[in-house]
Structures are given as C-alpha cells and as structure tokens.
Amino acid sequence: MKHKRVNIRLLEVFVSVVRHQGYSGAQQDLNLTTSAISNYMSELEEHVGFILCRRGRSGFMLTEKGQKYLQYVETFLEEYDQLEKASLALDGNEVGAFNLAILDATVMDKTLNLPEILRAFHDEFPSTQLNLLIRSPHELVQGVLDERFDAAIGTFPSKVSNLIDIPLYKEQHWLYCSHQHPLFNEHLPSIEEVKKFGVVSRSYWKSADLRKRGFGYSTATVDTMEAQLALILSGRYVGYLPENYAELYMQQNLLKPITPSEFGFQAPFSLVFKRGRARELPIKKLRELAKEHAQKSYRNA
Asked: Would you tell me which of 161, 199, 227, 235 could form a disulfide with 222, CB atoms 3.0–4.6 Å apart?
C-alpha cells in the first residue's frame, strides 16, 4: 500500500512547537492560533500513527518516538532548504534583487543590530543584490503589498490582512529638548509647563496619536527622524526620538529627556512580508535572523 506523503507545513509546525516548548510559544513564530497549531499537530500525529508529544501540568515533553522523529524531520527540512536553494541557483533566480525597506533611524538600533543581520544575509545569499530603502510606515506597508519591497522592518499602527507580521521588539521613545531650549536646565518640569512649548509631530501620526503622547496639537511636522532631530536641536521645539538615536547627542550634552515619567512610549517593531511568500528562502532567512538578534538583545539586556 502506497503511503501518502506528509505535508511539509505540518513538519515545520512540529519543529516550531518543539523549539518553543509548546503551542503558546510557537504562536508568534508561526503566526497561527493555538487551536490551528493543535489541528496541525493532530493531523501530523494521525499521519505518522503515534503520539509525538505530551502537554500537561508537568509541561511540554516529546515522547520517545517523537524525539527520534524530530531528528529525521530536522534533517529532512535542512536538506529540503538546500534543494530549494540549489534549484534557485540552477534557474538563475538566486542572482537577483531583494528589496528590504526599513524605517529611518533603525540602522544603529542595538536591539535589532541591522548591520549584523545584513552581513549574515549577504553570506547566505552572496549572489543576490540587496537593495536597502528607507520609507515611512505607510510606504513600507504599501510597498510590501504591491511587492515593490520583498520585506519591511518598522512600526505599523494597525494589522493588514494580506501581510504576515512578525513581532520583533519594542523601541523606547522619550520626549527631548536641546541644550538651547528653556527646559534644558529645568529639573522635572510639570506637564503644564512642557505643553507651553511647540512640539514636533510626525507626518504619519494622526491627531489621536499626538494626544496619546501628551499634546493636543503640533507646531511643526516632519517625515524623518533626521528632520525631527534638526528641529529639536534648533532649541525652539520639543519632540520624541528613539532612545538609541538620541544617545550620542545626550553624551555630547546636546539633548535631554523631559520628565520621562510622563512623556515616553514604546513603538512595537515588526518584520512584515506578503502572505504566501513565507517559504521563499530569502524571506525565511531574514525572518530567522531578525528574530534571533532581537531575542539575543533581550537576553543580554
């Protein structure tokens, strides 16, 4: 009797569940609900004919057969990826372009460590021309949707149904003023005192976004962090900047955060790519690298 071949997606789900020691941990990695993961695991166990893992109060644990099966699966998936890569090279598709778009002021973010990600990506795909572009959040989303960008890294205000969103980390922002601003020498000025001064907003922020950050209106608008920094350094405005971006200027005593207990927020950063492209090798590798470096930064924090 001919045995039906297993769906590779089931194997990928199995490996992810083992890696994260359960369904809940694998949710983010797979972008699936726990019920969907449970269905995949049940289908795989029905296919192989034995129990792969056990879950309960004592935690997650592979069965003896599950441990042996995992070794076969990991070997198979590794060889399958090599086959895909070899096929691309033979077809000439590996020698192409990969367009990665990012939000500005991301390059020096130590949590993401973008230079290290780019180095590892190049080493994996040395024949691929990597194009790195800087765009606003709206442009990132639209570019991925119409496939001008293969993937994007940034902060996105809302979920988009046709995109896979892989959470990476949260970027800390504080409200800053420059050494030429009247608040620079004030120790923990009050909310009312801070609101007397002009604030810089971002062109992609809505009125509600500005209100959530403590201000009813802005007196200047920018679409890049560099422009925001220039206005803040002028001494005539206060504005929000990523902590990592402002660090150098703080060391030079050119910037100072204003009343951090009242004015600060965290921007969730994600990797996004179009639904249906998750199995493409460059996107799989970028996803792996981005998650690896973000998690490494949290462990070292």
From this structure: 227
Buried b (16+ CB within 10 A) or exposed e, 138-163: ebbbebbeeeebbbbbbbbeeeeeeb
Higher pLDDT, 110 or 263: 263
Fold of 97-162+269-300: D-Maltodextrin-Binding Protein; domain 2 (3.40.190)
In the chain, which residue ranges form alpha helices assigned H by DSSP?
Answer: 8-19, 23-30, 34-48, 64-91, 114-124, 137-145, 191-194, 207-212, 225-233, 243-251, 281-300
- Do 46 and 78 meet the contact criterion of CB atoms below 8 Å apart? no
CATH topology of domain 171-267: D-Maltodextrin-Binding Protein; domain 2 (3.40.190)
Alpha-carbon span 25 to 250, nearest angstrom: 38
Q: Which of 79-83, 123-127, 250-254 has the lowest mean pLDDT?
A: 79-83
How does pLDDT run across 195-247, given as a tens digit for each residue?
999 999 998 888 899 999 999 999 999 988 999 999 999 999 999 999 999 99
Same fold for the pair 8-91 and 97-162+269-300: no
Q: Is the dihedral of CA 183, 186, 188, 190 positive or negative?
A: negative
Which CATH class, in words, describes the domain spanning 8-91?
mainly alpha
- pLDDT on residue 88: 63
* pTM across the whole model: 0.70
Q: Write out pLDDT tens, residues 263-277.
A: 999 999 999 999 888
